[in-house]
Amino acid sequence: MRIIDLSSPIDADGWEPDPIRHEIMTPAEGAVHMSEEMKKHFALEFDPAVLPGGELLSLDTLTLTSHTGTHVDAPSHYGSVGAYGTPRNIDEMPLDWFFRPGLLLDVSDVGTGVIGVDRIEAELARTGCRPEPFDIVLLRTGADRYAGTPDYFTRFAGLDGPATDFLLDLGVRVIGTDAWSLDAPFGYMIEKYRETGDPAVLWPAHFAGRRREYCQIERLNRLDTLPGPSGFRVVCFPVKIKRGGAGWTRAVALVDA
Q1: How far apart are CA 121 and CA 67, in angstroms?
Q2: Beta-carbon neighbour count of residue 79 at 10 Å?
Q3: What is an annotated GO biological process for this record, any one (predicted)?
Q4: Of the candidates 241, 219, 252, which has an alpha carbon nearest to the alpha carbon of residue 4?
Q5: According to the model, what pLDDT value does residue 66 have?
Q6: pLDDT digit string (tens) for 203-214?
Q7: Is the distance from CB of 27 to CB of 60 less than 8 angstroms?
Q8: What's the rounded Cα separation, in Å, for the pair 250 and 71?
């Protein structure tokens, strides 16, 4: 079995609208910290100088949103009320949603804007593949080439409302993208709203989750390394954040050798 990493790193050096703070405590600093914590919380005295090199363990402290890096959006991210009932948080989602056969749709020719039903149907016809219920559909937009730059947040394609419903009608419950969002960029949607006055053009992929329960994987990476449109399984278990609207994931594809 071959394992293909489909995840973006959490990188404090990359450009983010919500900057990441990554503080690293060295093993020597960790020894002092552990000594102080043991004394404070457990009344234990310990001299870190007795450790080899005066070192114990390093410690990373990160401040970031749950939507930084590759992550899974829970239904509760889309709104507080669903037509189907109370939207579930990420820690409440069934794990079997996140270990499923995958289907890759290459829509990298769309550029910046929306991916409609016609484009999805054309790609399914081109590949001769069609998702089965609960298959994980991955959209390759090509946006990952801009990761770590401001362009990553403005130059990509997202699903429109009918295209989202089309995939959900086929029984898909997890849709992934290598873009920052499953919806089109902010600027594109707002421009279309100003042109049409139609609120349906605003965040249609996310708001579809208010009507129908499903999850998104956003900020995937390296979808171009997959062996083809099918023939692989996706593993994307989200981190179990209590009451979380999303959870980070180390998404991978499993390909039988």
Answers
A1: 29
A2: 14
A3: L-tryptophan catabolic process to kynurenine
A4: 252
A5: 97
A6: 999 999 999 999
A7: no
A8: 8
